[in-house]
TrEMBL record:
Originating organism: Streptomyces corynorhini
One Pfam family matching this protein: AHSA1
Superkingdom: Bacteria
Biased composition, class Gly residues, residue ranges: 216-225
Region (Disordered): 1-33, 207-234
Gene3D superfamilies: 3.30.530.20
Composition skew (Pro residues), residue ranges: 1-12
Domain Activator of Hsp90 ATPase homologue 1/2-like C-terminal positions: 45-173
Composition bias, Low complexity: 18-31
This protein's name: Toxin-antitoxin system toxin subunit
Family listed: Belongs to the AHA1 family.
Amino acid sequence: MNTTPGPHPNPARHPDPDAAAPDNATLTTTDGRTALRMERRLAQPPERVWAALTDPAALAQWFPSEVALDLTPGGRMEFRFPDVGTAAAAVGAGDGAGDSAGDGSETVMTGAVTAAEAPRLFAFTWGTDHLSWSLAPDGEGSLLTLVHTFGDLPGAASFASGWHLCLTALGQSLDGERVVPGRDTGELHESYLRAFGLDLGAVGAAPAREATGTPGPSGTGGPSGTPGPSGADGAVKRVRFERQLVRPAETVWEVLSAGIEPVAGLPVPEGFTARKVPAGPVTEVRAPASLTYQATPDSAVRWELGEGTGHGARLVLTQTGPADFDTDTALSAWHARIDELATALLAR
């Protein structure tokens, strides 16, 4: 189960994005923690909006879970998801912050109020995340600023698109409109992903043994984890992409394999390759979770599909090579290939 608090693509809770452009959101990262900042102008004064932020009955109209809270600093909060089939897939119980009823009926996550200064500031923890909602007068209305702080940078587009839809629902509720059920089919997520630069890869050192196609032991920080110790000479290079996708691993695998199931020792199916990157035999395959193949005798490519935020699978793609590995070409080639994959997934 995923361990990510926050909004999720539950069609019973979110209005249709209608291909809306992303809000003017920003990301900042400090000491491994990422802060997503979003603003929304609302027609109602802060006092009206405050009630919608803090009253459980009003929250039920737009927030991604049922909420129970003690509106005092240090007060307990509970986030309940009655429909485990949709909600729990996106917001599991991580770090002891959640619990299940045990009968498949609901998932509960907990947090605590960290600030309650009516009608200016409401802040709380949700699992290991922190959310701050501030209100300022804006003419006859309000300027609402949300700052969501979390540890999963590649999941930022999921959080942004989810909160985008929640804030739209908040506006509809405050305006007395019917909150229209719907969901983000992926386009809004991809808009935020590109705006945040989360489609870009990175170059760094890699374990020497990874260059042979054998990954190091898993650790934390994503499906690929933390690789084993680097080679003594530090000469091995690695190109790495980590990208949240909008479809589950099984669907991603179907698109990549295109009906040709990979087999160790045989040529890698074309869908797992990129232009200008050599392709050799498959060396390891665990459908639909991972595939490794030799690009050249001293270069390997590895695909991994793990848990993400609830939008879909989390892709980690790496290519390793020797000191003269052309990382610029690899970055360009894999960026294009992963973009092609992401576009194809939107049609599924």
